[in-house]
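Q: Given only this backbone (370 positions), what sequence would you predict?
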């Protein structure tokens, strides 16, 4: 079961507590979030239900604005991690639990589309969305909502103390200087772990990625089940890792992790304690779609329009620690000052992922999982 990639928001909670919420819930309970005074709660005509993984989060004033503009109240039905949430919607296809599904990313997109889960809808303002995120542009079954980059993070203090340059690329990670320093997540149980594996496939090819992982294995890479353990228990650069006396100064996390370390530190430091190896990044794109059989189709369409509005897009970075997809959205200063800009992330086409994912994970497991 792949755990949701949306640990950035839960990373924030973990940092706040460690300075923790378990970031990788297996089967979360539903959550009901409403906004504003428009409509009666539970009314199919005045309530629009967003089905999501557990890490969806938005400011109350932003949801209130949606209600004021449309008359619809938003109900958020949280359904565990991304894989669990998607499985539940596939099982209830045609009689969905809500109107819009949010949280399928490019690693699982083909599965969702092949199942016929969504009713096509071209969201208003889609022309403002970056073209390279519109992976279903021809049919509009899903709408891009956000992007995030899975990257190796490093503990700045460790490398400064050792007078050692931090790694910058996949190649660097296999060098003797970085032996026994990296911790990553299991690609079979964790979304960032899978993303990191896909990044190596994109970099070294179908055959070369296995040779690369053999090198990493010989260089002492440590594999743990999920992001929460890797980042908050094994990584020496995080607030949680410092508390746990962690000893691994390299971890697979996100390009947006350094701003989290700043935002939730008391007092806030002038510089992020962690950095990002931008040559190790894999780009994830997250989508939302109108569910086939939605009871409130018009409300669902209005919500999709709103999810790519400037107001919502600018609200996401400090609530879910992701990047907006619309061209006119402005990132908060915390992101621009402390986050990493990834100009050339690796990518793998969704249909290629769908065709080869299980094989890649099995081959990877045979090499590094003990």
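A: Predicted residues:
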């Amino acid at each position: 079961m792949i755990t949701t990639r949306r640990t950035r928001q839960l990373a924030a909670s973990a940092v706040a507590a460690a300075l923790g919420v378990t970031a990788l819930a297996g089967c979360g309970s539903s959550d009901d979030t409403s906004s504003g005074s428009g409509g009666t709660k539970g009314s199919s005509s005045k309530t629009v239900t967003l089905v999501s993984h557990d890490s969806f989060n938005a400011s109350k004033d932003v949801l209130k604005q949606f209600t004021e503009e449309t008359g619809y109240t938003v109900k958020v039905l949280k359904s565990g991690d991304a894989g669990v949430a998607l499985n539940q919607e596939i099982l209830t296809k045609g009689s969905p639990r809500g109107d819009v599904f949010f949280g399928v990313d490019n690693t699982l997109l083909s599965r969702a589309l092949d199942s016929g889960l969504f009713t096509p809808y071209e969201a208003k303002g889609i022309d403002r969305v970056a073209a390279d995120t519109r992976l279903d542009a021809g049919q509009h079954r899903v709408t891009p909502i956000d992007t995030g980059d899975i990257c190796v993070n490093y503990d700045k203090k460790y490398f400064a103390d050792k007078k050692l340059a931090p790694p910058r690329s996949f190649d660097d990670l296999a060098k003797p200087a970085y032996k026994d320093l990296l911790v990553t997540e299991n690609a079979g149980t964790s979304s960032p772990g899978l993303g990191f594996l896909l990044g190596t496939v994109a970099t070294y090819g179908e055959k070369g990625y296995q040779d690369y992982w053999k090198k990493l294995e010989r260089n002492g890479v440590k594999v743990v089940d999920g992001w929460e353990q890797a980042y908050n228990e094994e990584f020496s650069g995080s607030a949680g890792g410092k508390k746990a006396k962690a000893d691994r100064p390299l971890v697979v996390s996100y390009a947006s992790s350094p701003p989290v370390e700043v935002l939730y530190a008391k007092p806030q430091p002038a510089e992020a304690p962690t950095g990002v190896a931008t040559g190790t990044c894999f780009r994830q794109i997250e989508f939302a779609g109108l569910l086939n059989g939605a009871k409130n189709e018009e409300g669902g369409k209005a919500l999709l329009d709103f999810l790519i509005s400037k107001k919502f897009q600018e609200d996401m970075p400090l609530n879910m620690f992701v990047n907006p997809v619309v061209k006119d959205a402005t990132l908060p200063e915390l992101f621009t000052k402390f986050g990493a800009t990834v100009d050339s992330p690796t990518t793998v086409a969704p249909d290629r992922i769908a065709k080869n994912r299980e094989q890649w994970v099995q081959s990877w497991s045979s090499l590094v999982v003990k």
